[in-house]
Amino acid sequence: MRRIRMRAQSAVEFLTTYAWSFIILAIMVAVVASFLITKSPATYVPPTCYISPEFPCQTIAIINEFRGSLAELVFINNLGTAIQFPTSTNTFEISTVISNKVFGGGCFPTNVPEGATVVCNTIMQNYAPPVGSQEIVEFTINYRVCPKQCPAAVYNTSGSGTLFVSPVLPEALYNGKVVLVGSYTMGTSVVPITPVQLLSSPSTDGNVTLGGITYSSGSYSELVNNAIYTLYAKPAKGKSFISWSTTDISGSGHITIANSVNQSTTVWINGPGTITATFT
């Protein structure tokens, strides 16, 4: 009996002495695992993109489609005059640091008035980076300057971006239309960009964070159709989140929130509308 008591006492003393060592070891294992496990979309940072002051970049995205991926760029024509994209060449060329390949595509519309929005995209054939992986890209845009008439001379401007690869519903990517790449045929756009208004109710009780960017109530965000974005309601001090709601301008339910009562959730965009976070 005495021997059993001594063993029990020794076990207690061992645990007491080395308990902190076990705790520290467990913390180290958890930290290492956090780096090895793929991060959730909630941890992704928003994309950064730069072209030039004359062509301010609104957004850039690479969307994984398993068989390949879609690269899409949106910018504004602030050149002070109309521009035109030549149809006889790749007007949009993009490369990634990892792939070390150049992919060519098109920009739409072909004739762009001053102040208009431009969407450039291309299918990156046989290149499908994992969702959540970081990509550093460089791109070139070829165009003509058209103050009155469009001359034959073609100019080009270059830009760069850093972004995380987004998921997409595979069956919705092509939608029967693809840009000019290899054997593909020209379409109006692979995945359109659509404006979504972000609202808080009441407007002073909080903000909406979409894709890692926090917006004040009433702001608009240009989003890639069929991509899935992280959504987070950020209440003001002393306020609490209640629920999410949406309205769809097209009337077809093209904005779908995964869980309307979760403060942190995801949203699927497939058309213009509004997303509202209600607070109390």
Explain the overall architecture.
With 280 residues, the chain is mainly beta. It has 2 domains: 48-173, Immunoglobulin-like; 193-279, no CATH class. It is built from 2 helices and 19 strands. The protein has helices at residues 2-36, 170-173, and strands at 48-50, 57-64, 68-76, 82-84, 92-96, 102-108, 111-112, 117-125, 134-146, 155-164, 193-201, 206-210, 213-215, 219-224, 228-235, 241-248, 255-257, 264-269, 273-279. The strands form 3 sheets. Strands 1, 2, 3, 4, 5, 6, 7, 8, 9 and 10 form a 10-stranded antiparallel β-sheet that branches. A 5-stranded antiparallel β-sheet has the order 13-12-15-18-17, with no helix packed on it. Strand 17 and strand 18 (264-269) form a beta hairpin. The termini are far apart.
Structure summarized in a few sentences:
This protein has helices at about 1-35, 170-175; strands at about 50, 55-65, 70-75, 80-85, 90-95, 100-110, 110, 115-125, 135-145, 155-165, 195-200, 205-210, 215, 220-225, 230-235, 240-250, 255, 265-270, 275-280. It has about 280 residues and is mostly beta strands.
List strands and helices in order, with pairings.
Layout: H1 2-36, E1 48-50, E2 57-64, E3 68-76, E4 82-84, E5 92-96, E6 102-108, E7 111-112, E8 117-125, E9 134-146, E10 155-164, H2 170-173, E11 193-201, E12 206-210, E13 213-215, E14 219-224, E15 228-235, E16 241-248, E17 255-257, E18 264-269, E19 273-279
Parallel strand pairs: 11-19
Antiparallel strand pairs: 1-10, 2-3, 3-8, 4-7, 4-9, 5-6, 5-9, 6-8, 9-10, 11-14, 12-13, 12-15, 15-18, 16-19, 17-18
Pick out its properties:
280 residues; mainly beta; Immunoglobulin-like; 2 domains; five-stranded antiparallel β-sheet; 2 helices; 44% strand
